[in-house]
Write a structure and sequence with these properties.
This protein has 344 residues and is of the alpha+beta class. It contains seven helices and 26 strands. The protein folds into three domains: 142 residues, Copper amine oxidase-like, N-terminal domain (Copper Amine Oxidase, Chain A, domain 1, 2-Layer Sandwich), CATH 3.30.457.10; 63 residues, SH3 Domains (SH3 type barrels); 126 residues, endopeptidase fold (from Nostoc punctiforme). It is elongated, with a radius of gyration of 24 Å. One of its GO terms (molecular function) is hydrolase activity. It comes from Paenibacillus brasilensis.
Amino acid sequence: MTMKKGVIMALLGVSLLQANPSYAESVPLNPVTTVYVDDRPLQLAAQPLLLGGTTLVPMRQLFEAQGARLSWDGASKTVTATKSNTVLTYRIGELSATLNGNPLSLNIPGQIIKGNTMVPLRFVSEALGSTVKWDALTRTIRIVSKDDFFTTVLSGVNLRSKPDSSGASPSLRLIPSGEKVQVIREVNALWLEVRTKDNLTGYISAKPKYSDYTSPSLAEQQGDELIAYGEKFIGTPYEFGAATGQTSTFDCSSFVGEVFRHTLSIDLPRASYDQAKEGREVGLNELHKGDLLFFSARGLKIGHVAIYAGNNKLLHTFSKERGVHFDTLDGKWQKRFVTARRLF
């Protein structure tokens, strides 16, 4: 990824964390436990702040931890950071900066707060060629200042010139199983933009069978994609033992199998009690859109499966009267609940 491209992506990307609109203009970023640079905790002179949805951290530690030499003009409040052939110049308080002489825009200006010069973490880091990631599980910010070839291809996948599998997007080459790539960005639920070690940039499928790349944002997008496809079948008739390979009728497990196969190329066993062995177990209090929920039915410990649709809703089928439909995960279903499994 070229520096120019990295900066453009930084400007267009979603802010690392979103502020609650009811908060004050700036609040301590208490949910963040640690900021890491190349797996080393960054020792900050002041707590990170949240301004308008953008994370700000003390300037000097952020620049120097990523190998940039810092020059500060106190009279004009201008910082110049140099790293290899990259020169970033920024005047605190303004909404513009220059990178190698080219003008750039910031969403939120840097601030001097209680004697600490605070600058936007994502903007500065990606301008210096780093990758910024938010780890929701550990509530940490991770900055990778070197080439991040951490994603492993699990099954041979075409590197395409566009995020499109049709003939309009020719394959640049086949990336074999075991090769590592750098993920530049998540294009959408189904595509990743990546760079290979031989410096080719293109697009690969984001479906779980092709790589071990995961992130909370990608999982959320893929959950939305699953539900969007599944709800196209609202009202489709229920038929116990419905044949696979067709979509005119479903039973609970054939419906789930069709949705996961079509959307994410995840092949599931035919029966619900076998589907319950896939993925990893999660609790009712940690459900994400797209998780599978299993219930007792017909005298079986596991005899029914549904897709969690978010907001305490289920998408499933079991009734000849209703066919495929949404339900509320209420007390009736919770009494019959056995397990939930996460597949992506």
